[in-house]
Amino acid sequence: MDLHLTGDRPTPEEKAAVDFELGGAPESVWEGGAPAEDGETWSSSGGNQKAESQRHLLLPVLHAIQNRIGWISHGAMNYIALRLDVPPAEVYGVASFYGMFSLQPRPAVVAHVCDDIACMTRGSEELCDQLDTRLGPENLPCAGGRAMWVRSNCLGLCERAPAVLVVKAGQKPQQRVLAPATTDRVQSMINDAANDVMPAAPDVLNPQLSVPQEGSPKLVLLRRVGKNNAPELDGYQRLGGYEALRKAFDLGPEGVLREMNASKLLGRGGAAFPAAKKWEALHLQRDLLKSNPKRKHYLICNADESEPGTFKDRLIMEGDPFAVLEGMTIAALATGAERGYIYLRGEYPLAAQRIAAAIEAARWEGFLGQNIQCSGLNFDIELRRGAGAYICGEETALFNSIEGHRGEPRNKPPFPTQAGLFRQPTVVNNVETLINVPVIIKQGGAAYARVGTESSTGPRLFCLCGHVDRPGLYEAPMGTTLRQLLTMAGGVAGTGRLQAILLGGAAGTFVSPKEIDVPLTFEGTRAIGATLGSGVVMLFDDSIDLKRILLRIAAFFRHETCGQCVPCRVGVVRQQEALQRLIDNRPMGSKADELVMLKEMAQAMRDASICGLGQTAASALESALQRWNVFA
Amino acid sequence: MILLWGSNARETHPIFFHHVLKGIHNGAKLYVIDPRRTSSAQWADTWLGLEVGSDIYLANAMGREIINAGLANTKFIEHATSGFEAYRDHVQKFTLERAECETGVPAAAIKQVAHAYAGAGRAQLCWTLGITEHHNAVDNVVALINLALLTGHIGRYGSGVCPLRGQNNVQGGGDMGAIPDRLPGFQHVENDALRGKFEKIWGTKIPARKGWHISHMLDAMERGELTTLYCLGENPADSEADRHRALKLLSGLEFMVVQDLFYTKTAELADVVLPASAGWCESEGTVTSSERRVQRVRAAVPMPPGVRDDTEIIFDLARRLGHNWGEPKAECIWNELRLLSPMNAGMSYARLEEHGGMQWPCYDEQHPGEMFLHGRLWNDPLIGPRAPFHAVESVEPVDALDQQFPIRLTTGRRLDSYNTGVQSGRLNSPLRNGETIDLSPADGRQYNLHEGEKVRVSSRRGSVVAPVRFDSGLRPGLAFLTMHFPDQVATNDLTIDAVDPLSGTSEFKATAIRIEKFLEQ
Predict the structure, then answer these.
(1) Residues of A in contact with B30 (CB under 8 A)
(2) Chain A contact for B43, CB < 8 A?
(3) B407-517 sits in which CATH class?
(4) Can you give the residue ranges of every domain in chain B?
(5) How confident is the model over A456-471, as pLDDT tens digits?
(6) Which of these CATH numbers, 3.40.50.2300, 1.10.630.10, 3.10.20.600, 3.30.565.10, describes A459-541?
(7) Predicted ipTM?
(8) Residue B47 near chain A (CB below 8 Å)
(9) Contact B43/A48, CB-based, under 8 Å?
(10) Is the Cβ of A570 closer than 8 Å to some Cβ of chain B?
């Protein structure tokens, strides 16, 4: 298309980063190449279909620039526009959408310091204050101009709070995790990074720390975590891996769907939709696949775990990555998808490393690719990394993100199973949902359904964090009560006096200690007006000022709204402003007026927002106001 | 498939191009043939950057490839055309290899476009002034029509040939007989029976010989045969090739009347200027679009004081000359046309209103109009005469390149401006950067120029000064100017008035120039 570029030009380094990502230098001067020595060839090829076919490379290319240079200049964006035949305004639109991309010059080393609610219970404010004193204010260069620190939303390291992620741009970009972090450790890692001395691995998975039940024979979903360190395919198979896939080949797609239906597995990402229903929707469209070669089915593993307080998917991918691949492969068999994506949030370096290695190993051993294990099944997986956008966990926003557009949710219908990724039928499953699949196939759906309750079947993962004695990832059958779960985790930490529990993360609900005997099932939590969500159980002792937690949640949504629909874009801002006024004790009108306004706004957001973000942005606040007189 | 040949519709026909874009988004392939890699070409699946004036060579080579690859639509050729054998034999010398030498376009790309065009289920072949502003304009058009006949891409839904008109009512001007040899409805003035019909109804004698094209008129002024000019809505003082000569001849007229919406450069030379209404918003009447669709136009705003409707002025003039035509009423004039022009006979104002416009021919009030002008070619048995192939030769542009004038200048339009700027110049546009001479970056280096620097551009007829802009879509040796800013850069001081004998169009698209550093005093 005719691109209208500004005069900004890319540096050689920026060009090199883009060219490397796209697999070579541009073919002609018109795609940003150097003029040919012997003159140009006076014809060119391109066109809309070519442009559309490479649009999905936009996010990976932006990653390449950010990783290599540390920020994305207008010159670099112009070059990307030329190479991919994308309007520069759209390149800018996508680049400016993601939190991990900087469009302003930045030092190569940036420390992202989590100041979200889980870390707030573990001293993140003090950490930030000390960094401010020692290194200077956030967002400004420190360490001789070679580094800076910034506050960050939840990094998904809540069991080891407070958490810091140090990112270093360069030819060999590096991401290093510090958790639990101390001021001294952050300061020395920033200095080391600025001087190019960094630990070899991005992070260490310490099962004792992160999975306190490790070694227990009762574990089903977490049974391999910690037993197959630096996960290898052989080790995975020795521990029973890929047995389910073999059984699935014997069962065939219909048999797999039968077991899935019998298992009554509900999605573990937060929305609790029956997993088998989605699979069936694609299975029913199989005939169209044969008659139309352009038609494809896609399978997406939603690993964009960004709900504050949630870290279960990260630990699964770090500790048992092959289980995710096996679950996806069985799903591919049932749905007819030949291409799968794992959309992984950008802040998970160790999970990225392990999933990438697992995909490589599985390909090498014939568990991915053409004719998997001589079964006739063709299926391969591509790892895609997000770039710091909570909204991309919403399935339709995730499609747009993979396709190279701004990660804005789409209106439904059409539903993903009709027109999802690249407008093709698509199934999106959460990581935890997928690792239940091999369990179901191996045990049989009926046996699986006997665990838990009538309508909430199977084991469930819970992310315990905040003021709890042994934070970490816990596995318990559906129906376990909150009290039982707390006992497993050693009870309340901090002052020892429990004030509130947040279920389901920022988009979830607060419950009071009086409700501690609620069975943790979808129906049980619904009965008390709460939600299970993504399995977050975050505890707050009585030293915590709940108002500050509510304000932090409001700030989170204000930061993460995509801005596409009005109720959410305006609502999350007004909500935060009203909370701030209430906290400062300078309400507009009376306090009661403000609370009425907050309630009406919550209703408007719930009724009229396009996606779940706006619909749940007031949920935690409302649940708190119902239970406590927070602003007395 | 859409084939744009010698057209930068993205800039010159932006509304039309929106429809092209819709097609592209629905999966249509776009091919663009243009010496420049224009903004239209940047949307193309394949762009062929041929040498200026080598269109016939390219078309004939495509024709040969289509025939020799067995892709010609033999059924259609046998059914509805004539002269195929002569055409087939003629194009055999236009091999892909020789075409690559002559046009500068890689043989593989020529082959690809030929196959894509012949193989397409539906194909539109659209062209504009890149084809017609040449001394052999009609040959160029014929070479393209040959391709349409060869493949049967004509007279069917989604397939056809389409010269994109420059204004909303160029076609309407032709319909109404504003052509030297035609009366309204394209009826030849030298046909006694047809002329007789008009004479009977108009009650006057019509000269039995065809008139002059504008280029012929200039020649006639030079010979002293044409001394008085009544000029309506045209600005020849700026728009004619070899502008120096045009200015001299217009100034030498004994008497000139200009009737126009704007006070143009030509109006400045006139003895009498008649301010006329804006047809699109102040007048009643009709317009005809490129697809032969006649639509009603209605007055939406009153005319400013001192301005009169075009028909009113003409009626008044007639009265002063002793002919009372009555009151100038648009519908009455239209009904008179329906009486005289069979192709418009069925288009009453009521029907035009009812259908939101109708496509001619429309012979009576029951006729629905024709979506395809050439649909008859598919009728079995064939209606009317066969469509003839014409073997045409490729001829180089008249203004040859040599050592003194080594650079080929081609002219065109930009998105923000219109023709000589009379209509668009007084409106601001954020896109407008004034006139520049566009050069390839390689030429810029060779002449040691930088962007924005002023250079002297000279042809065999004149010279102008313009700032330089680099455009990587231009090949070395090719330069580009527009005629939008005649007061700033009088581009038509450079162009040649070598005229196509059949259409009367000058070769605006091919001028030999040289570029020199310009040292300001």
Answers:
(1) 47-48
(2) yes
(3) mainly beta
(4) 2-164, 170-359, 407-517
(5) 999 999 999 999 999 9
(6) 3.10.20.600
(7) 0.82
(8) yes
(9) yes
(10) no
